[in-house]
Structure prediction request, 370 residues.
Amino acid sequence: MARQVSYGKLLRLAHQRAIDGKGGLAASIAKMCLDQQADLTPSELDLTYQILRQLIDRVEVQIRRHIADILAERIDVPRDLLAFLSNDAVHVAYPIIVRSRQLSDQDLLTLIARQGTGHAIAVASRPEVSEVVCRRLVNQGEAEIDRTLMRNETAKLGRDSLEILVERSVEAEDYQELLVKRRDLPTDLARRLYVWVGEALRHHIARNFAIDSEALDESVDAAVWTALDEDAGRSQGSAAGWSKTETADPAARVRRRAARLVRVLHQDGADAFLSEVATETRLPAETVARIFAPDSPQTAAIACKALGLDSERFIDVLQAFHDDAGWAGFTIDGGLDRACAYFDRIEPLGAATVLRQWRRRPPGEKPAAH
Prediction:
């Protein structure tokens, strides 16, 4: 015979274990009735959830978190209660988002769209995050979401998501190590990473991917000189009127270009220099102005490295802009040392690749969601 169930019985049982207030009552009901060892009839289970519905939005955060921890492991939580907790403050929602098997891909996509970064990081921490959810997370353009996904070995990162993360790794050095250690990284993307990562990661890539590291090393230098030249007409020198000698010797062309840029800077000033950089890189004038803005020595370093300037000429550029406009928070003592150290760490091809990315999206601008 089925056990007789009533609100009164459950409430009396809960009060026996409750600490003061509604929070204690809700926590006690969750603990006693929803514990994995609890033997509830369907009617008792339904009654338990009805009581929690009445109390959940009136109890303090710590009690809601306690209840969420209990419900996260269950597969019979009513949809409205699950939705309430997963959309709660991230401290409460985290165990539900990370562990609940009841949440569908559509539920997760809705959370990403409606909630903040904390909820998205929780989604990125789930086991077996699907490819479609990974793509939406990567499209958020948030570094901590990216890092969480890359650390999640079970996340199903599709090729398109991995391509985006590899592109971002040019500027975000910590992405590089996370990417090369993923088992799902395709060999051709590992080859692309090889160009701009440090020596230790190159050894790792050479050991773990089917690539010819010697051939790649030989191609890196030549690739630097052509990385900015995406169309055939420009790469042949027709657009800029390069001589046959310059076209045959791309390194000499880059040296001449660097010398010309510095000469323009010294003779004609900062505005003429920016105009010349815009011409050379085919970047919009407003993007070039942002790159060399007073508070952007890092983006200036990337541009100067890609354009072939050496460290001495890079210092010339910094000092010229410092004299003309003043670098916000930049002093020629400590600031110059830090900027030069950053400049020295940049791989030329990596810098050129970043400039190509800036044609599509200026520095500091978030990627559009797809």
In short: DSSP finds 24 helices and no strands in the chain. The mean pLDDT is 78. The two ends are 57 Å apart (CA to CA). Residues 315 and 334 are 13 Å apart (CA to CA).
